[in-house]
Each structure stands twice: as C-alpha cells, then as structure tokens.
Amino acid sequence: MSLDADLLKVCISKEEISEIVSKIAKRINEDYKGRDPLFICLLKGAVPFATDLLKEITIKCKIEYVKVSSYDGIRSTGNLKIESKFPELKGENVIIVDDIIDTGKTLLELKKLVLEKGAKTVSLAILLDKPKGRKYDVYADYIGTIIPNEFVVGYGLDYNEHYRNLPYIGVLKEEIYNN
Ligand code: IMP
Ligand code: MG
Q1: What integer best gives the mean pLDDT of the chain?
Q2: Which residue from 100, 163, 171 has its CB within 8 A of the most atoms of ligand 1, so it is best to mutate?
Q3: What's the pLDDT score for residue 71?
Q4: 159 occurs within a structural domain
Q5: Buried-most residue among 21, 43, 164, 179 (CB within 10 A)?
Q6: Is the pTM here over 0.90, yes or no?
Q7: How many domains is the chain built from?
Q8: Which residues are catalytic?
Q9: Does 135 reside within a domain?
Q10: What is the CATH number of the domain that holds 36?
Q11: Which residues constitute the domain of residue 50?
C-alpha cells in the first residue's frame, strides 16, 4: 500500500513548501549578509528542510548537523541530551534549523546552550509552528507557516520513524495511531 493512503489529508503541498522555503532563504540572505552564519541543522527531522533551504542560501556560511533530544516525564524536564559532537561556537552567528516548534522545550534549551557555548547571536529558522502546543516561552525568528494543533508527517517529520520521505506534509488517519 502506498504511503499517502495513510493520510487523512495533505495540508502543505510540495509547491507550497517550496515557496515557503524560498521566502525564508531570501530573508536570511538579507539579514545575514556579511555575517558568515553557522547553520546548525537538527537531525533527523530538519534534513529535507535544511537541504532545500541551504540550496537557496547565497551568502558565505557554515553548516553543521547535530542530533539532540529532550528528556521528558520523570527524567527532569528541560534537560537537553546532545547525541552528537557539538561544533565550536565561539563568536558565531548561529541559525538553528528545525522542522517544527511545538511545546518549544527542545529549542528553548538548545538556544540557551548555544549562547552558553559562546555564540555571538542565535536565531531559529523553523518550517512549522504549532503555537497552540506551546508550553515554553520561545519564539522562532523565521517561521515557514503556522499549523493547527494536529500531528503532521512528511518532509522530515515522522510518526514512529516513518513518513519522513513524503515530499509534502499531511495529517495521519486516526486509525494509524490507534492500531
Ligand atoms: P517541541 O515539543 O517543540 O520540543 O518539539 C520537539 C519535537 O517533537 C520536534 O522537533 C518534532 O520532532 C516532534 N514533533 C512535534 N510535533 C510534531 C508533529 O506534528 N509531527 C511530527 N513530529 C512532531
Ligand atoms: Mg525534530
């Protein structure tokens, strides 16, 4: 069975994603001209977004990929787990690239860490924003688009590690969760 048969609906098409990504790239190209930013792209969800975005970044820049996750439940809230080697950040103008901001926990913690490690500035470039899910006071400087409080998959976003390879973003059928 094809992957898209599991979707209730497509909410952001390939074409729409492409327009959204171009708009963010254009703003970053203007805002970071002459500042040699360091993009920190978060594995694995941000990979398709980062790949498309970076192809449209025309200024001099550096690129790193890191894997982070945040503990939840009983494992003390707000603890960020860095799962890969972290780049040297002293004096850098960091742009964190991620797929989605929901509760805001991961990105709030990461932003703090990046500044603690000596970055000069830090900003967030996020494809999707779910403001209704927010539990921590964090905002993104570059937001692709705002979505309702629904669980979405595709274009890097997963459900149990599946659906990341869909070229668009959609909402899963409820029966997929309940099975
Ligand atoms: P946070 O709650 O803002 O810290 O988001 C943490 C992570 O939850 C994101 O980077 C995604 O990996 C995941 N996430 C949040 N909402 C969704 C969704 O709708 N689909 C897939 N992953 C999600
Ligand atoms: Mg993620």
Answers
A1: 92
A2: 100
A3: 59
A4: no
A5: 21
A6: yes
A7: 1
A8: 102
A9: yes
A10: 3.40.50.2020
A11: 15-147
